[in-house]
Design brief:
Helices cover about 35% and strands about 15% of the residues.
């Protein structure tokens, strides 16, 4: 069965080796939440991570300062990892599309599919991954982390 995002292993591997800075929208400070676990895995693999959660702005999650919204992240981002439900993912994608510069990738987590938001992002030249988890893909593809500095 083809992936809902139409991306093959080579494209996913390229994303995971070339992107360095990742915002995790919906990151939770609770260690039992999947977003917290994925944030930790991304940190351990050498990505520069930025948790985004308006309810925890100014706090730390896994030692990283939490931004209240994507626009508050002080660096250019290569990827936005969306830990929101499918209906709310559109708002997160639109926030990503308002950034300057645009991120290269919008990644919607397992179970998150929002085709209208994906089309808006693709129309702006942003690669969209849906219904996948970067932590799972890192392990499945044997990717150690980013291969060079960049966004």
């Amino acid at each position: 069965m083809p992936a809902v995002d139409g991306l093959g292993d080579a494209a996913i591997r390229d994303i995971l080796t070339s992107v360095r800075r990742i915002a995790v929208v919906g990151a939770s400070p609770k260690p039992t939440r999947p977003s917290n676990d994925v944030l930790g895995i991304l940190i351990d693999r050498g990505y520069e991570t930025w948790p985004v959660n308006p309810g925890h702005a100014g706090a730390l999650i896994r030692g990283r300062p939490v931004a209240g919204r994507l626009a508050d992240v002080p660096v250019a981002l290569g990827m936005i990892d969306v830990f929101r439900n499918s209906a709310a993912a559109g708002e997160a994608v639109d926030a990503a599309l308002a950034l300057d510069p645009l991120p290269r990738v919008v990644w919607m987590q397992l179970g998150v599919i929002n085709q209208p938001a994906a089309e808006r992002a693709r129309a702006r030249g942003v690669t969209v991954v849906m219904n996948r988890c970067p932590a799972i893909e890192l392990r499945r593809l044997g990717v150690a982390g980013p291969s060079h500095a960049g966004s």
